[in-house]
C-alpha cells in the first residue's frame, strides 16, 4: 500500500461527506497518484466503517466489472466488489426517492442468496451452487460519490476510484421469484429491460464471466485474502449483463427475466 492511515481515513471521510450532502468529490486517483488497488479497497473499508458506526448492517456484496467491455474500458482484467447494507434494499415495484442518490443508474443482475458460508481461495462453481439457497432477479442502483470525469482536468475516473467508491454501488431492488440454482443454466438467464415501457437493453447471464457463479468464486477468493468470507443469508449481486441505464425523476425501470421472474422500480 502506498497511502498511510491518515490519508485513507481522509479519503473515506470525503466519500461519506459526498454521500451525505449529495455533492460529488474529486477523483481519488488524482489526489493520490501513487495509490494502489489495496489502497482503494482500504478507502472503501473506511467508508464501510462509517456506515457501521451509524448503525447500518451488512447484508451482502456486489461484484462489478464482470463484462469484457467494462474491463477493457477501465484497463483491468478482474472484477471488483463492494458492500451491500440494509438501507440499500428496496422491494420490487418500489418508488425510489430521487433525492436519495446523486446520479443514479440501473443495471440488471442475477442475485445469489446464500444458505451456507463460503470461503477460501479455491472455491469451485459446484461449491457456490451448493452453498446458494436461491437465485432471484434484481436491479442494482449505481451511484457515483466521486466524479465520473474531473470537471477541472477532464480526466476520467479509473478502477481505483470505482473501487474506493464501493464499486459504485448504492442500492438494490430484489424480485420475489426464487429459483433453485441446481435447476437452471445461469448462462441462459436473460432479461429484457424497459424504460418507461420501451425496451432499452437486453442481455444474458453468459455476459457475466461466461458463468455468473464464477463471480462468486472470485469474490470468495478476494475476501479470503483479508480473512473474510461470504456468509449464510447474505445477498451477492453477481454482475450486470446490460449497460448502465441513466435515470431521472419519473423513470420506470422494468426487467423481464422470463421464466426467472420480473423486477421493477420507479424513480
Walk me through what this model shows.
The chain is an alpha+beta fold. It has a single domain (58-266), classed as Fumarylacetoacetate hydrolase, domain 2 (Alpha-Beta Complex), CATH 3.90.850. It has helices at residues 5-21, 28-31, 37-53, 68-73, 125-131, 159-164, 212-224, and strands at 58-64, 80-85, 89-91, 94-95, 105-114, 132-142, 169-174, 190-195, 198-204, 235-240, 245-246, 252-256, 262-266. Strands 1, 2, 3, 5, 6, 7, 10 and 11 form an eight-stranded mixed beta sheet that branches. It has a five-stranded mixed beta sheet with strand order 4-13-12-8-9, with no helix packed on it. Helix 1 (5-21) crosses helix 3. It is globular. The N and C termini lie far apart (39 Å). The mean pLDDT is 95.
How would you summarize what this structure contains?
Helix content is 26%, strand content 28%.
Amino acid at each position: 500500500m502506498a497511502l498511510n492511515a491518515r490519508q485513507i481515513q481522509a479519503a473515506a471521510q470525503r466519500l461519506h461527506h459526498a454521500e451525505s450532502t449529495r455533492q460529488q468529490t474529486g477523483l481519488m486517483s488524482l489526489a493520490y497518484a501513487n495509490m494502489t488497488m489495496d489502497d482503494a479497497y482500504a478507502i472503501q473499508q473506511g467508508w464501510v466503517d462509517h456506515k457501521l458506526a451509524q448503525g447500518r448492517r451488512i447484508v451482502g456484496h456486489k461484484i462489478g466489472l464482470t463484462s469484457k467491455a467494462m474491463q477493457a474500458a477501465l484497463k483491468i482484467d478482474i472484477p471488483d466488489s463492494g458492500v451491500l447494507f440494509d438501507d440499500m434494499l428496496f422491494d420490487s415495484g418500489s418508488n425510489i426517492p430521487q433525492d436519495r442518490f446523486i446520479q443514479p443508474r440501473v443495471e440488471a443482475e442475477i442475485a445469489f442468496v446464500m444458505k451456507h458460508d463460503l470461503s477460501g481461495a479455491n472455491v469451485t462453481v459446484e461449491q457456490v451452487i451448493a452453498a446458494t439457497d436461491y437465485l432471484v432477479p434484481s436491479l442494482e442502483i449505481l451511484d457515483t460519490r466521486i466524479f465520473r470525469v474531473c470537471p477541472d482536468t477532464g480526466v476520467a475516473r479509473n478502477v481505483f476510484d470505482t473501487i474506493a467508491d464501493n464499486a459504485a454501488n448504492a442500492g438494490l431492488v430484489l424480485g420475489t421469484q426464487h429459483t433453485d440454482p441446481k435447476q437452471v443454466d445461469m448462462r441462459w438467464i436473460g432479461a429484457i429491460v424497459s424504460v418507461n415501457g420501451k425496451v432499452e437493453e437486453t442481455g444474458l447471464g453468459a455476459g457475466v464471466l461466461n458463468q455468473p457463479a464464477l463471480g462468486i468464486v472470485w469474490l470468495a477468493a478476494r475476501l479470503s485474502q483479508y480473512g473474510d468470507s461470504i456468509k449464510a443469508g447474505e445477498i451477492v449481486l453477481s454482475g450486470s449483463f446490460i449497460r448502465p441505464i441513466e435515470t431521472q425523476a419519473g423513470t420506470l425501470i422494468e426487467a423481464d427475466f422470463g421464466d426467472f421472474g420480473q423486477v421493477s422500480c420507479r424513480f
